[in-house]
Design a protein that fits this description.
With about 500 residues, this protein is α/β, with parallel strands linked by helices. About 45% of the residues lie in helices and about 15% in strands. The strands form three sheets. The chain has an eight-stranded mixed sheet with strand order 1-2-4-3-5-8-6-7, with helices on both faces. Strands 12-13-11-14 form a four-stranded antiparallel sheet. Helix 5 crosses helix 11, helix 17 runs antiparallel to helix 18 and helix 18 runs antiparallel to helix 19. The relative contact order is 0.09.
């Protein structure tokens, strides 16, 4: 072990699965004297101040030159143009990004909040130790898998020692809407590589244990994935930390533990069908201890990954398959709030089968369609997003006007065949009939009969007749509205759909 590490990290694990602090210069092709191995700025100053951005870049340059296990690229930029680095750690020949994406991997991210630096310095020293370790179990793992790191996901905030980015945005409230370059860079990493486990390294000022941790609580997670994730933390990570001498508890203790907010990485990671863990060290503790507990938590997760290596891919794939099937099962609700520790108040009991977006709306959410890999199909004058897909977990959260942080208010459809047509709209009317949205059966029959005629004109391509009859349909809706013969929800939905069809045929 490096002499400086011996000084800094006085609290070491008594037993470890991976001795990542067992650093050897002989484990790489070129023999390097121990005193010549690179160190972080934090280590150079005996833990009295944090590693700077410049020192981080210099460390990566040294590691790439001295170790054949490390590959670093600029994966994105901050608001102020600072690089956001992505580090890939493997053993032997470098894997291409495509090979990493198709293989086994986990992802460790530090400093989403710039004034919470311990996880960042923990990641930097962890990367260095992985570059030179001679631990056979770790090398065997790196033969099969890749560990990805972004130690500084918010470089502007780190430089300014602020929670938010250069615009003041909290980057950990941007994992759904993806408004910031930092949020988009992180989403690009998660979407392309699809890590099996994501570690989100934070710090907190609230009193409590030396480290608090938590799993995704959002109710739209696959149940098996959720339970596996919870077990990882309660049955593996927390006991490991206690054995190492740290006090640990669930995040938010005392008081209510963290909720379901779909914008934060802990939950977004689960909605993307991976395991996810929030790590919060106590920021008022001694600096070297804050770094070491982050390192030990990372090692605990890697230990779990190793032990459950053969099970995790099946858990993830099962999550994707199950949620896609649930998307078109009308008996399975979708939750717009609520968590596994408090009941929901906003539930789509009969959720839409999909959402119809205008061309303008689709253009507004291009980054979301791409960075969440949301399957969609083009229809005349718009785009249809079905709930019959793995990423149905975020579709209503982004596109339903009833969601708390929706990006657009798309048109919810309750029938899959032929979206954006009069025949599909007829099914929409039937849905609202079943929902008792009309006060008169005669009125609802008039609507369905009218749409039957419009569907015939559509099939024949008679645009003028389609438009004329849809304008009449609009007048019928207005009459029902004026006479309180239709609910607001049904009126607004059918009125929007009518406008869509008229614009389509114009």
């Amino acid at each position: 072990m490096l002499k400086k590490l011996n000084i800094l990290f006085v609290i070491l694990l008594t037993t470890t699965l991976f001795s990542v602090t067992n650093v050897s210069a002989e484990s790489n092709a070129n023999v390097i004297a121990e005193e010549d191995l690179p160190t972080t700025g934090f280590e150079d100053r005996d833990g009295e101040s944090w590693t700077t951005l410049e020192e981080e870049a210099e460390l990566f340059e040294q590691l790439e030159q001295m170790s054949d296990r490390i590959r670093v690229t600029e994966h994105g930029e901050s608001v102020l143009g600072e690089p956001i680095w992505l580090v890939r750690v493997t053993n032997g020949e470098h894997r291409t990004d495509e090979e990493i994406a198709n293989g086994r991997k986990i992802f460790v991210m530090g400093t989403p909040h710039g004034n919470e630096p311990a996880g960042r310095d923990a990641s930097l020293s962890f990367i260095r130790d992985l570059a030179f370790t001679d631990d056979p179990e770790m090398l065997d793992l790196l033969d099969e898998a890749t560990i990805l790191f972004t130690p500084t996901s918010n470089p502007d905030g780190r430089a300014a020692n602020t929670r938010g980015n250069a615009t003041g945005l909290d980057n950990n409230r941007d994992n759904l809407n993806l408004t910031s370059p930092e949020g988009q860079t992180l989403a690009k990493t998660l979407n392309y590589f699809k890590p099996e486990i994501t570690l989100d390294l934070h710090e907190r000022s609230a009193e409590g244990a030396q480290v608090q941790i938590l799993w995704p609580r959002n109710l739209n997670l696959d149940n098996t994935l959720h339970d596996f994730n919870q077990s990882m933390i309660e049955d593996y990570v927390m006991p490991y930390l206690e054995e190492a001498g740290w006090t640990s508890e669930l995040y938010g203790t005392p008081g209510g533990a963290g909720g379901e907010d779909e914008r934060i990485l802990r939950n977004t990671g689960g909605l993307r069908h991976g395991l996810s863990i929030l790590v919060e060290s106590y920021s008022r503790g001694e600096m070297t201890e804050r770094v070491q507990v982050q390192r030990d938590t990372t090692e605990a997760v890697i230990r779990f990954w190793k032990e459950k290596f053969d099970e995790i891919p099946g858990i993830m794939e099962g999550s994707r398959v199950n949620r896609a099937a649930d998307g078109i099962d009308p008996t399975v609700p979708f939750y717009l709030d609520g968590a596994d520790n408090w009941p929901p108040t906003m539930v789509l009991e009969k959720k839409p089968m999909g959402y119809l977006l205008t061309d303008e709306q689709a253009n507004d959410v291009t980054r979301h369609l791409e960075l969440f890999s949301i399957q969609n199909e083009e229809v005349n004058n718009g785009v249809f997003v079905s709930m019959n897909q793995p990423m149905m977990t975020v579709v209503p959260l982004l596109f339903d006007e009833r969601a708390k942080y929706n990006e657009i208010s798309a048109l919810p459809l309750y029938s899959l065949p032929n979206p954006g047509t009069a025949s599909n709209m007829k099914n929409q009317v039937n849905h609202f009939i079943n929902e008792s949205a009309f006060s008169s059966d005669a009125d609802s029959r008039k609507l369905t009969m009218h749409l039957t005629a419009v569907a015939i004109y559509e099939e024949k391509g008679q645009a003028n007749k389609v438009i004329k009859h849809m304008e009449t349909f609009d007048l019928m809706l207005d009459h029902m509205k004026d006479n309180e013969g239709i609910t607001d929800e049904a009126f607004n939905n059918l009125k929007t759909y009518s406008e869509f069809l008229i614009t389509k045929w114009q």
